[in-house]
Amino acid sequence: MTVSISARPYEFVLDPKKVAFVIIDMQRDFLEPGGFGAALGNDVSQLRAAIGPIGGVLTACRMAGVFVIHTREGHRPDLSDLNGAKHRRGRFATRIGDAGPMGRILVRGAEGHDIIAELAPAVDEPVIDKPGKGAFYATDLEAILRGRGITQLILAGVTTEVCVHTTLREANDRGFECLVLEDGTASYFPEFHRVALDMACAQDGIFGWVAPSAAVISALSKGAE
Ligand code: TIU
Known about the structure:
Elements (H helix, E strand, L loop, with lengths): L2 E3 L6 E3 L4 E6 L3 H4 L4 H4 L11 H14 L2 E7 L10 H5 L10 E2 L2 E2 L22 E4 L10 H7 L4 E7 L1 H14 L3 E10 L3 H16 L3 E3 L1 H11 L2
Parallel strand pairs: 3-4, 3-8, 4-7, 8-9, 9-10
Antiparallel strand pairs: 1-2, 5-6
Tricarbonodiimidic diamide (TIU) binds next to helix 6.
């Protein structure tokens, strides 16, 4: 049974059996002091607003049996999957791979690389480790989604204009129908957040749809009835 979600630029017809909820990079490295986000010079407290809305949709997805996937941006401890351009970029004192208060910055296995406790993945929810901004680049995300017959994605996480937008664009070109969670995404720059959401659904949905978490939760509860 499909269910309509009130969204921009027009209603999104969600199929709970064909949709996946993709939670992007809700890691301590981006949301807590001393991680990668802070090393880039950002006020990391900006991102916490997305936690509650993502948690609400996550609970609704679990109750409705919707497939949930989590991603983490980060690199192998030997940094062999970190290209030089990404490593060199910026003029900051602390770089990817350097020691920080939560372990090595943006390195797999470090405490900072973990997903925040509030949104900890369940055992049956795949976690995709990605070296880039997009979740499809150099990962098995597409194979996992195709294997489950997924054709629609609800995208959430951080940051709106970087990893969420890159993944949205990659997914759009691969033929997935994407809905971005308006209050379940966040940026270090409020203006970028607002414009990134506008860009996603401009031109009558050039990349997809945008809707608040309440609309998605309400639709999922109807779909589960
Ligand atoms: N810097 C920034 O806004 N974002 C990232 O580096 N990665 C993600 O968005 N996950």
